[in-house]
Amino acid sequence: MSNSLNNPIQHLGPVLDDVARSLHKAAKEAEGLSKEASEALRKAAADVTQAAELLHKRTAATARNVVQKAAHEMQQHPIATLAAAITAAAALVRLIAATSDKDS
Question: pTM, whole model, 2 decimals?
Answer without folding.
Answer: 0.40
